[in-house]
């Protein structure tokens, strides 16, 4: 059974989010004795911002919820108790969610623009290659036809036949290129 690559990417994104939350929690635990809770919540906000720059919106929301849960559980008095609607931190959590979603949206917009720029670059490269491939036989056809028109009566039969054959060969080559397109 083959699992789609997108599934692995999603799992990797969630793994990075869990790692970011774990690092934020460890760093917050080290800083908790020296800083107040508003500053500790900024550590989690930095983790949310990191995840938002790299992952999907659903991963960002999950990261925000996990950050809120861990911050509330581990650092907000009474410790080891859950009070997610504590008015003192409700605004902090709402801002964390808003910032995470905003960064996620901006990052996705940037990724979309990068994909569009790359697609346009590929399109330009393809068109330049096609243009070159078509111009080469066309130049030969125009040059040969011009020679036949301007010097046709002065050319001997063998030269005229060679030019006409070359003209036909290049026209067939151009026709083949067009068919391939």
Fold blueprint:
Layout: H1 5-31, H2 37-54, H3 57-74, H4 87-151, H5 157-180
Question: Number of helical runs?
Answer: 5
Report the average pLDDT across residues. 86
**What kind of assembly state do the chains in view correspond to?**
single chain
Order of helices and strands: HHHHH
> Strand count, sense and closure of the main sheet?
none
Helical proportion, percent range: over 70%
Low confidence ranges: none
Q: Tell me the radius of gyration.
A: 33 Å
What gap, in angstroms, lies between the N and C termini? 37 Å
Helices and strands: which structural class?
Answer: mainly alpha
Outline, from the CA principal axes? rod-shaped
Strand tally? 0
- Beta-strand fraction estimate: under 5%
What does this structure look like?
With 181 residues, the protein is mainly α. It is built from five helices and no strands. Helix 1 packs antiparallel against helix 2 (37-54), helix 1 (5-31) packs parallel to helix 3 and helix 3 packs antiparallel against helix 4. The mean pLDDT is 86.
